Amino acid sequence: MYKYGLNLTKKGKNWVCLCPFHAERTPSFTIDAAFTFYHCFGCGAGGKIYGLNKRIKEQNIINRKKWLENLKNPKPAPKPVRHDWLLDDTDDDLPF
Question: Distance of CA 45 to CAs 4, 38, 62, 88, Å?
């Protein structure tokens, strides 16, 4: 599991780590080795431990494709909002 970036720590009878499927700060991804299943309490991902390897690989492929698409077609930076009314020196619209 270390090759996928899962830093597992033992907590009771389960193993916990940060979820590989979404960003989080505290570990909510639990692996139960006795019953061979995994579950994330943050995003709801779960299933048999045997499918975890495949799902992580698929997620990495999807992320790589999105990254490459962004390199090919970068999104333009948002244009700054102009506030011309700040530069207007006439006091015609002021109530006082």
Answer: 16, 8, 16, 55
